Amino acid sequence: MSTQSLPGDDRYSRQIRFQGVGSGGQELISAGHVLVVGCGGLGTGLVNLLARSGVGRITVVDRDTVELSNLQRQTLFEEADALAATPKAVAAAEACARINSGVSVVPIVVDVTSANVESLVAGVDLVLDATDNLQTRYLLNDACVKLGIPWIYGGAVSSTGMSLTVLPGETACLRCLSPTMPASGTTDTCATVGVLASAVAIISALQWTEAIKLLIGDRDHLNRTMVYLDVWTNDFQRGEPLTPDPDCPCCGHRRFDFLAAAATDAAQDEG
């Protein structure tokens, strides 16, 4: 992919002028490699923002194809993608090539399972969760804690959304908060209760902001607790900072149960 500058290119000038980023921060952003797992509502929002902000390498993993029902909130896709049933990861990469030729977006059309999750995660700077599948989230938690790679949980369903930044060894991981994965079918999904595009947009923006902080090394301003919002009832909650649970089976006892077990569900995009 071409990385040449456009004539008079000041693409990142407004981002660089922000005191928290600056030219040094932009260089770190451009050198970054981010893995986005899931390319639905959250994933397209994340990939769009990552590409526009100049993250140098973005790997996008999703098994699904674009459908018309996606277009209400999945911002990188068009009707032509749905009519052609284009794989979401591929459609996202093609859209980003039109947005910013200076970044590399690598699409991977696979299920995320216990057999491949570590190879997908290994070597990236951070992982962004954009799935709607609890099995995959617990797999990501296991892999990232095991390999010491930060990951940012995100979820949006109905009018609600939530996000959590996980720094292995520093903050609580997913299993600190929920040691046992809820049974399949016991939680709401976008397919059962719908989702508002505004909830998806806000959560993806929060995740992207945390990602940029991590890429430039600003850990002082990271969110170290769960953020919850409901755009319909105007509710926004942020708790106290969460610390690792010494009895956590994952980060406390280093027991990676989901990596050891055969995956029963495959990764799906969030929203």
Describe the structure.
By secondary structure, the protein is α/β, with parallel strands linked by helices. The protein has a single domain (13-260), classed as Rossmann fold (3-Layer(aba) Sandwich). It is 35% helix and 15% strand. The chain contains 11 helices and 8 strands. The chain has helices at 13-17, 22-30, 41-53, 79-83, 88-99, 117-121, 134-147, 174-177, 190-193, 197-216, 257-260; strands at 33-37, 57-61, 104-108, 126-129, 151-157, 160-166, 227-230, 235-238. Strands 3-2-1-4-5-6-7-8 form an 8-stranded mixed β-sheet, sandwiched between helices. Helix 3 links the parallel strand 1 (33-37) and strand 2 (57-61). Helix 3 (41-53) crosses helix 10 (197-216). The chain is globular and about 50 Å long.
